[in-house]
Amino acid sequence: MFFHQYYLDCLSHASYLIGDTTTGRAAVVDPQRDIAEYVADAEAHGLRIEKVLETHFHADFLSGHLELAERTGATIGFGSAAAGRAEFPIETYADGDVIKLGEVELEIRETPGHTPESISIVVYPHGVTGAPYGVLTGDTLFIGDVGRPDLLASVGVTADELARRLFHSLHHQLLTLPDDTKVFPAHGAGSACGKNLSTETVSTIGEQRRTNYALAPMTEDEFVEAVTQGQSVAPLYFAFAANRNRQQRELLSDDITVPTLTMSKVLAAQLDGAVVIDAREDTAFAAGHLRGSVNVGLGGRFAEYAGQVMTAQTPIVLVTPPGHESEAKVRLARIGFDRVLGALEHPVDTFLDHPHLTERLSRLSAAGLAERIRTISDLVLVDVRNAGEVALGSIPGARPISLSELLNSIDQLDPSAPTVVFCAGGYRSAIASSLLRAHGFADVSDLVGGYTAWQTQQTTPLDRSN
């Protein structure tokens, strides 16, 4: 048996290539959109990718099922509840169906809960009469968590309904597997598809039975309460990606070159509605950037956060560190944001040549923020962390608006009021402050080091009454 896990840190996304080395038949499960690595590995190990299996319609990334089907001739498979919901040809598999790759066999188990069509795939190296090697759980069971059941509320499927189905899927489909069965989820820590995901990317059924909070002994009602409370706001692009994963769409091209644009062309695109995404580190952005641009650094969860500062299908102009233009384009393509017009040529030199078009980002130390709080009575503090983080403590008087909510909540803030945004360590607040500036906020700063820095320097409670 050939079995390999591919892990994308920037999206906390795991995908899998499984093959029978005797027959050469193979399947890819939950693929990312740029598929070259699967194709190369299959070729290197004498495998033919015949099937692309999706554990569900994903919302947090654009899957590569269409790209793989086009490149390899593979068929695309989903659980039976996906029937009639895709615009492209699919095979559907019911509970108990077995996909034979040779001696290696894959058993489909329907595990609705995160979504109605969710499946898990049990991998048997020596046929289903032998012992299972592992189970690919998609977004049903994570390491340390389970899939959130609330993402489909906007389309009429309630979190309560899906949570109850999830309870039965876990207990009747997954926890019936032997304790030494390896657990291979579709996501790890950082994913917005759960709230307590581990940094580990593989576990066992037995370990999860012992340590996963959602698998502790409890009633169905207690489980529903446990998994529906405390979930973060879903990133803005999730609904778009979920819909695109059901659609017949344009394929990702092998050509990932990015045209260079002069400043005049960038300004024209910006005037025509394009968003300028500056993917440099926050310190470089703070030192000087094009007015109206938004800072989403490549060093973090670039695609996920870029998908929260603009609506889908918005034209995009990139500003990147030299040589990283194609990387930024591919990472945006992984969430379906394909309208990259080009990248500003020689950004630093161009900014130096056009100082009247640039500005600096206002950044405050924790001590500087404390001084502003003491001296500016109408200062607005915005905490852009997720609800679970805020619940553990925040700066007194701060208004919680997570980064996922900020774009749609801008009209609730006063652009003329002095404003300071903060997150846990500074990455998200740099995004947030640049987003507010791009939307006309005149006096906005972010807190360097975030709430962590504030906690470190703050020794006495603040009194904002004076």
Task: Explain the layout of strands and helices.
Elements lengths: L1 E7 L4 E7 L5 E5 L6 H9 L3 E6 L11 H8 L2 E5 L11 E3 L4 E3 L4 E6 L8 E6 L9 E5 L20 H16 L7 E4 L17 E2 H7 L8 H9 L9 H7 L15 E2 L1 H9 L3 E4 L3 H6 L1 E2 L3 E2 L6 H5 L9 E4 L5 H9 L6 E5 L2 H7 L4 E2 L2 E3 L1 H10 L4 E4 L3 H4 L8 E2 L2 H7 L9 E4 L4 H12 L5 E4 L2 H8 L9
Parallel strand pairs: 3-4, 4-5, 5-6, 10-11, 13-18, 14-16, 14-17, 17-18, 20-24, 21-22, 21-23, 23-24
Antiparallel strand pairs: 1-2, 2-3, 7-8, 8-9, 9-10, 11-12, 15-19
Describe the structure.
This protein has 466 residues and is α/β, with parallel strands linked by helices. It has three domains: 2-244, Metallo-beta-lactamase, Chain A (4-Layer Sandwich); 260-359, 3-Layer(aba) Sandwich (Oxidized Rhodanese, domain 1), CATH 3.40.250; 362-457, Rhodanese-like domain (Oxidized Rhodanese, domain 1, 3-Layer(aba) Sandwich), CATH 3.40.250.10. Helix content is 29%, strand content 21%. It has a six-stranded mixed sheet. The radius of gyration is 24 Å and the shape is globular. Residues 462-466 have low confidence and may be disordered.
